[in-house]
Amino acid sequence: YQNEALQVISQCGELSDIEEARIRFLGKKKGRLKEIQTQLSTAKPEERPELGKRFNAAKNAVEASLNSRKDELAKPVKQAAGLDVTLPGIASPLGKRHPISKTISEFKEIAGRLGFDVADGPEVEDDYHNFVALNIPDDHPARDPLDNFYLSVAQEGAGGPWLLRSQTSTVQIRVMEQVPPPVRIVSTGRVYRPDTIDATHSCMFHQMEGLYIDKHVTMSNLKTTLKMIATQYLGDDIAIRFRPSFFPFTEPSVEVDIQWGESWMEVGGAGMVDPNVLKAVGYDPEEVSGFAFGLGIERLCMKRYGVKDIRLLYENDLRFLSQF
Ligand code: PHE
Protein backbone atom coordinates (compact mmCIF):
# COMPACT_ATOMS: atom_id res chain seq x y z
CA TYR A 1 0.00 0.00 0.00
CA GLN A 2 2.60 2.50 1.11
CA ASN A 3 4.94 1.98 -1.85
CA GLU A 4 2.15 2.18 -4.34
CA ALA A 5 0.82 5.37 -2.76
CA LEU A 6 4.22 7.11 -2.70
CA GLN A 7 4.80 6.16 -6.32
CA VAL A 8 1.46 7.63 -7.42
CA ILE A 9 1.95 10.80 -5.39
CA SER A 10 5.39 11.46 -6.84
CA GLN A 11 3.84 11.40 -10.30
CA CYS A 12 1.11 13.90 -9.49
CA GLY A 13 1.53 16.92 -11.77
CA GLU A 14 -1.40 19.05 -10.68
CA LEU A 15 -3.16 19.94 -7.49
CA SER A 16 -6.23 18.09 -8.74
CA ASP A 17 -4.13 14.89 -9.06
CA ILE A 18 -3.14 15.31 -5.43
CA GLU A 19 -6.76 15.51 -4.39
CA GLU A 20 -7.54 12.37 -6.38
CA ALA A 21 -4.67 10.53 -4.72
CA ARG A 22 -5.81 11.69 -1.31
CA ILE A 23 -9.26 10.25 -1.88
CA ARG A 24 -7.82 7.06 -3.31
CA PHE A 25 -5.33 6.32 -0.53
CA LEU A 26 -6.68 8.09 2.56
CA GLY A 27 -10.40 8.47 1.81
CA LYS A 28 -12.57 7.69 4.83
CA LYS A 29 -15.38 6.00 2.88
CA LYS A 30 -13.97 3.90 0.05
CA GLY A 31 -10.22 4.58 0.14
CA ARG A 32 -7.52 1.91 0.30
CA LEU A 33 -6.89 2.78 3.93
CA LYS A 34 -10.46 1.92 4.77
CA GLU A 35 -9.99 -1.52 3.17
CA ILE A 36 -6.90 -2.17 5.25
CA GLN A 37 -8.70 -1.02 8.37
CA THR A 38 -11.48 -3.50 7.71
CA GLN A 39 -8.89 -6.27 7.30
CA LEU A 40 -7.27 -5.24 10.57
CA SER A 41 -10.45 -5.90 12.49
CA THR A 42 -10.32 -9.52 11.36
CA ALA A 43 -6.71 -10.05 12.49
CA LYS A 44 -5.81 -12.17 15.51
CA PRO A 45 -5.86 -10.19 18.76
CA GLU A 46 -2.15 -10.84 19.51
CA GLU A 47 -1.13 -9.49 16.09
CA ARG A 48 -3.21 -6.36 16.33
CA PRO A 49 -0.85 -4.03 18.22
CA GLU A 50 1.96 -4.65 15.74
CA LEU A 51 -0.34 -4.32 12.72
CA GLY A 52 -1.88 -1.17 14.20
CA LYS A 53 1.55 0.40 14.52
CA ARG A 54 2.41 -0.38 10.90
CA PHE A 55 -0.97 0.88 9.80
CA ASN A 56 -0.38 4.21 11.51
CA ALA A 57 3.16 4.54 10.18
CA ALA A 58 1.99 3.93 6.62
CA LYS A 59 -0.87 6.38 6.99
CA ASN A 60 1.47 9.10 8.34
CA ALA A 61 4.00 8.54 5.58
CA VAL A 62 1.34 8.86 2.89
CA GLU A 63 -0.09 11.99 4.48
CA ALA A 64 3.33 13.63 4.74
CA SER A 65 4.14 12.78 1.17
CA LEU A 66 0.84 14.20 -0.06
CA ASN A 67 1.42 17.46 1.82
CA SER A 68 4.94 18.00 0.61
CA ARG A 69 4.01 17.25 -3.02
CA LYS A 70 1.11 19.65 -2.66
CA ASP A 71 3.44 22.42 -1.38
CA GLU A 72 5.80 21.80 -4.26
CA LEU A 73 3.03 22.12 -6.81
CA ALA A 74 1.64 25.27 -5.15
CA LYS A 75 4.95 27.12 -5.55
CA PRO A 76 5.04 29.53 -8.48
CA VAL A 77 6.94 28.19 -11.43
CA LYS A 78 10.18 29.81 -12.50
CA GLN A 79 9.77 31.14 -15.98
CA ALA A 80 12.09 30.33 -18.78
CA ALA A 81 12.77 33.97 -19.62
CA GLY A 82 14.84 34.31 -16.46
CA LEU A 83 12.04 36.04 -14.61
CA ASP A 84 12.00 34.81 -11.04
CA VAL A 85 8.60 35.83 -9.74
CA THR A 86 9.58 34.75 -6.24
CA LEU A 87 12.18 37.52 -5.89
CA PRO A 88 11.12 40.56 -3.82
CA GLY A 89 9.73 43.34 -6.05
CA ILE A 90 11.15 46.81 -6.57
CA ALA A 91 9.02 49.13 -4.47
CA SER A 92 8.02 52.38 -6.17
CA PRO A 93 8.16 54.95 -3.39
CA LEU A 94 5.11 57.18 -3.05
CA GLY A 95 5.66 60.92 -3.16
CA LYS A 96 4.42 63.18 -0.39
CA ARG A 97 3.15 66.72 -0.29
CA HIS A 98 5.70 69.37 0.59
CA PRO A 99 5.28 70.70 4.15
CA ILE A 100 4.68 74.21 2.76
CA SER A 101 1.88 72.93 0.51
CA LYS A 102 0.38 71.05 3.43
CA THR A 103 0.54 74.15 5.61
CA ILE A 104 -1.08 76.30 2.91
CA SER A 105 -3.94 73.81 2.50
CA GLU A 106 -4.46 73.72 6.22
CA PHE A 107 -4.51 77.52 6.53
CA LYS A 108 -7.04 77.79 3.72
CA GLU A 109 -9.21 75.26 5.46
CA ILE A 110 -8.98 77.01 8.83
CA ALA A 111 -9.73 80.38 7.21
CA GLY A 112 -12.61 78.77 5.30
CA ARG A 113 -14.16 77.64 8.56
CA LEU A 114 -13.94 81.26 9.75
CA GLY A 115 -15.85 82.40 6.66
CA PHE A 116 -12.97 83.55 4.43
CA ASP A 117 -13.00 82.90 0.68
CA VAL A 118 -9.76 82.28 -1.20
CA ALA A 119 -8.43 84.89 -3.64
CA ASP A 120 -5.37 84.95 -5.86
CA GLY A 121 -3.05 87.52 -7.40
CA PRO A 122 0.02 87.69 -9.65
CA GLU A 123 3.61 87.33 -8.41
CA VAL A 124 4.87 89.91 -10.88
CA GLU A 125 3.27 93.14 -9.76
CA ASP A 126 3.16 96.74 -10.73
CA ASP A 127 4.21 99.67 -8.61
CA TYR A 128 0.58 100.69 -8.12
CA HIS A 129 -0.63 97.48 -6.44
CA ASN A 130 2.54 96.80 -4.46
CA PHE A 131 2.94 100.38 -3.17
CA VAL A 132 0.77 103.26 -4.38
CA ALA A 133 -2.69 101.88 -3.56
CA LEU A 134 -1.32 100.61 -0.25
CA ASN A 135 -0.55 104.17 0.81
CA ILE A 136 3.21 103.69 0.54
CA PRO A 137 4.57 107.08 -0.57
CA ASP A 138 7.21 107.61 -3.25
CA ASP A 139 10.02 108.28 -0.82
CA HIS A 140 9.20 105.38 1.53
CA PRO A 141 12.20 103.11 2.29
CA ALA A 142 10.09 100.02 1.44
CA ARG A 143 10.42 101.05 -2.22
CA ASP A 144 14.20 101.07 -2.13
CA PRO A 145 15.69 99.18 -5.10
CA LEU A 146 17.95 97.42 -2.60
CA ASP A 147 14.89 96.05 -0.79
CA ASN A 148 13.00 94.83 -3.84
CA PHE A 149 13.42 92.71 -6.94
CA TYR A 150 12.57 95.28 -9.63
CA LEU A 151 12.36 93.90 -13.14
CA SER A 152 14.45 95.45 -15.88
CA VAL A 153 11.80 94.85 -18.59
CA ALA A 154 10.61 97.83 -20.59
CA GLN A 155 8.42 99.91 -18.35
CA GLU A 156 5.85 100.79 -20.95
CA GLY A 157 2.19 101.22 -20.24
CA ALA A 158 0.42 101.81 -16.98
CA GLY A 159 1.66 100.67 -13.62
CA GLY A 160 5.39 100.28 -14.19
CA PRO A 161 7.95 99.83 -12.82
CA TRP A 162 7.34 96.09 -12.33
CA LEU A 163 8.66 93.98 -9.51
CA LEU A 164 8.33 90.59 -7.86
CA ARG A 165 5.74 91.38 -5.21
CA SER A 166 7.25 91.97 -1.79
CA GLN A 167 4.00 91.22 0.05
CA THR A 168 0.63 89.59 -0.59
CA SER A 169 -1.09 92.83 0.48
CA THR A 170 -1.27 93.50 -3.27
CA VAL A 171 -4.16 91.03 -3.38
CA GLN A 172 -6.16 93.20 -0.96
CA ILE A 173 -6.18 95.89 -3.62
CA ARG A 174 -6.90 93.55 -6.52
CA VAL A 175 -9.91 92.05 -4.72
CA MET A 176 -11.37 95.38 -3.54
CA GLU A 177 -11.04 96.78 -7.07
CA GLN A 178 -13.23 93.92 -8.29
CA VAL A 179 -15.96 93.55 -5.67
CA PRO A 180 -17.94 95.94 -3.47
CA PRO A 181 -17.93 95.41 0.31
CA PRO A 182 -18.41 93.24 2.30
CA VAL A 183 -15.19 91.33 1.57
CA ARG A 184 -13.74 88.42 3.51
CA ILE A 185 -10.79 86.73 1.77
CA VAL A 186 -7.45 85.10 2.36
CA SER A 187 -4.74 84.78 -0.25
CA THR A 188 -1.64 82.62 -0.07
CA GLY A 189 1.43 82.79 -2.24
CA ARG A 190 5.07 83.66 -2.73
CA VAL A 191 6.67 86.98 -1.94
CA TYR A 192 10.21 88.12 -2.73
CA ARG A 193 12.69 90.25 -0.78
CA PRO A 194 16.46 90.50 -1.16
CA ASP A 195 17.01 89.62 2.51
CA THR A 196 20.23 88.04 3.66
CA ILE A 197 19.49 84.35 3.92
CA ASP A 198 19.80 82.73 7.35
CA ALA A 199 17.95 80.23 9.53
CA THR A 200 14.77 82.33 9.60
CA HIS A 201 15.07 84.49 6.44
CA SER A 202 14.88 83.71 2.77
CA CYS A 203 14.71 85.88 -0.35
CA MET A 204 11.47 84.08 -1.27
CA PHE A 205 8.86 82.93 1.20
CA HIS A 206 5.11 82.46 1.47
CA GLN A 207 2.52 84.65 3.11
CA MET A 208 -1.14 84.32 3.85
CA GLU A 209 -2.93 87.62 3.51
CA GLY A 210 -6.30 88.13 5.15
CA LEU A 211 -8.78 90.93 4.55
CA TYR A 212 -12.15 91.53 6.16
CA ILE A 213 -14.14 94.64 5.23
CA ASP A 214 -17.66 95.21 6.45
CA LYS A 215 -19.71 97.51 8.64
CA HIS A 216 -18.44 97.70 12.22
CA VAL A 217 -15.34 95.53 11.92
CA THR A 218 -13.14 96.10 14.96
CA MET A 219 -9.64 95.51 16.22
CA SER A 220 -10.95 92.88 18.63
CA ASN A 221 -12.35 90.95 15.63
CA LEU A 222 -8.82 91.02 14.23
CA LYS A 223 -7.23 89.75 17.42
CA THR A 224 -9.81 86.98 17.81
CA THR A 225 -9.34 85.89 14.20
CA LEU A 226 -5.54 85.72 14.47
CA LYS A 227 -5.73 83.94 17.80
CA MET A 228 -8.10 81.36 16.34
CA ILE A 229 -5.92 80.77 13.27
CA ALA A 230 -2.84 80.34 15.46
CA THR A 231 -4.47 77.97 17.93
CA GLN A 232 -6.18 75.91 15.25
CA TYR A 233 -2.88 75.42 13.45
CA LEU A 234 -0.51 75.20 16.43
CA GLY A 235 -2.75 74.01 19.25
CA ASP A 236 -4.50 75.65 22.17
CA ASP A 237 -1.30 76.09 24.16
CA ILE A 238 0.42 78.42 21.70
CA ALA A 239 1.19 81.86 23.14
CA ILE A 240 0.58 84.73 20.71
CA ARG A 241 1.45 88.37 21.26
CA PHE A 242 0.55 91.65 19.52
CA ARG A 243 3.09 94.49 19.47
CA PRO A 244 2.24 98.04 18.39
CA SER A 245 3.87 98.72 15.02
CA PHE A 246 3.51 100.71 11.83
CA PHE A 247 2.45 99.89 8.28
CA PRO A 248 1.41 102.59 5.79
CA PHE A 249 -1.72 100.61 4.85
CA THR A 250 -3.05 99.95 8.37
CA GLU A 251 -3.80 102.20 11.31
CA PRO A 252 -3.42 101.16 14.05
CA SER A 253 -0.92 98.43 13.19
CA VAL A 254 0.51 95.51 15.12
CA GLU A 255 3.19 92.95 14.68
CA VAL A 256 2.22 89.39 15.58
CA ASP A 257 4.63 87.16 17.50
CA ILE A 258 4.41 83.55 18.62
CA GLN A 259 6.34 81.87 21.36
CA TRP A 260 9.68 80.56 20.05
CA GLY A 261 11.57 78.61 22.67
CA GLU A 262 12.48 81.00 25.45
CA SER A 263 11.65 84.07 23.38
CA TRP A 264 9.31 85.26 20.59
CA MET A 265 9.30 85.07 16.80
CA GLU A 266 7.57 87.55 14.52
CA VAL A 267 5.15 85.72 12.25
CA GLY A 268 3.33 88.60 10.62
CA GLY A 269 1.84 92.06 10.56
CA ALA A 270 -1.74 93.24 10.86
CA GLY A 271 -3.95 96.20 11.56
CA MET A 272 -7.10 98.13 10.72
CA VAL A 273 -7.16 99.03 7.03
CA ASP A 274 -6.09 102.65 6.55
CA PRO A 275 -8.89 104.94 5.22
CA ASN A 276 -6.54 106.00 2.40
CA VAL A 277 -6.47 102.39 1.15
CA LEU A 278 -10.27 102.17 1.23
CA LYS A 279 -10.45 105.43 -0.73
CA ALA A 280 -7.93 104.18 -3.30
CA VAL A 281 -10.28 101.33 -4.25
CA GLY A 282 -13.43 103.46 -4.14
CA TYR A 283 -14.77 102.27 -0.79
CA ASP A 284 -16.26 104.80 1.63
CA PRO A 285 -14.31 104.84 4.93
CA GLU A 286 -17.35 106.41 6.60
CA GLU A 287 -19.44 103.39 5.60
CA VAL A 288 -17.13 100.43 6.11
CA SER A 289 -14.03 99.52 8.04
CA GLY A 290 -11.92 96.41 8.18
CA PHE A 291 -8.82 94.59 9.18
CA ALA A 292 -5.96 93.02 7.26
CA PHE A 293 -3.18 90.66 8.23
CA GLY A 294 -0.19 89.05 6.56
CA LEU A 295 1.29 85.88 8.09
CA GLY A 296 4.59 84.20 7.24
CA ILE A 297 3.74 80.63 6.34
CA GLU A 298 7.26 79.21 6.66
CA ARG A 299 7.74 80.35 10.23
CA LEU A 300 4.40 78.95 11.36
CA CYS A 301 5.16 75.69 9.57
CA MET A 302 8.60 75.58 11.25
CA LYS A 303 6.99 76.07 14.64
CA ARG A 304 4.48 73.30 14.00
CA TYR A 305 7.03 70.70 12.90
CA GLY A 306 10.04 71.83 14.94
CA VAL A 307 12.09 72.76 11.85
CA LYS A 308 15.05 74.84 13.02
CA ASP A 309 16.28 76.19 9.67
CA ILE A 310 14.08 77.70 6.94
CA ARG A 311 16.55 76.59 4.24
CA LEU A 312 15.59 72.95 4.82
CA LEU A 313 12.21 73.80 3.33
CA TYR A 314 13.76 74.72 -0.03
CA GLU A 315 16.52 72.17 -0.49
CA ASN A 316 14.22 69.31 -1.51
CA ASP A 317 16.35 66.76 0.29
CA LEU A 318 14.25 63.60 0.31
CA ARG A 319 15.65 62.59 3.70
CA PHE A 320 14.03 65.75 5.08
CA LEU A 321 10.85 65.75 2.99
CA SER A 322 9.98 62.11 3.58
CA GLN A 323 9.48 62.86 7.27
CA PHE A 324 6.28 64.82 6.68
N1 PHE B 1 2.31 93.22 4.24
C1 PHE B 1 2.94 93.24 5.53
C2 PHE B 1 4.31 92.58 5.42
O1 PHE B 1 4.59 91.96 4.46
C3 PHE B 1 2.13 92.52 6.55
C4 PHE B 1 0.79 93.15 6.76
C5 PHE B 1 -0.32 92.69 6.06
C6 PHE B 1 0.63 94.17 7.67
C7 PHE B 1 -1.56 93.27 6.25
C8 PHE B 1 -0.60 94.75 7.89
C9 PHE B 1 -1.69 94.30 7.18
O2 PHE B 1 5.11 92.67 6.30
UniProtKB/TrEMBL annotation:
Protein name per its UniProtKB record: Phenylalanine--tRNA ligase alpha subunit
Record-linked NCBIfam families: pheS
Swiss-Prot/TrEMBL cofactor(s): Mg(2+)
Pfam family, one: tRNA-synt_2d
Catalysis: reaction(s): tRNA(Phe) + L-phenylalanine + ATP = L-phenylalanyl-tRNA(Phe) + AMP + diphosphate + H(+)
PANTHER family, per the entry: PHENYLALANINE--TRNA LIGASE, MITOCHONDRIAL, PHENYLALANYL-TRNA SYNTHETASE
InterPro entries: aa-tRNA-synth_II (IPR006195), aa-tRNA-synth_II/BPL/LPL (IPR045864), Phe-tRNA-synth_IIc_asu (IPR004529), Phe-tRNA_ligase_II_N (IPR004188), Phe_tRNA_ligase_alpha1_bac (IPR022911), Phenylalanyl-tRNA_Synthase (IPR002319), tRNA-bd_arm (IPR010978)
Primary location: cytoplasm
GO biological-process terms attached to the record: phenylalanyl-tRNA aminoacylation
Keyword flag Metal-binding: yes
Organism: Rubinisphaera italica
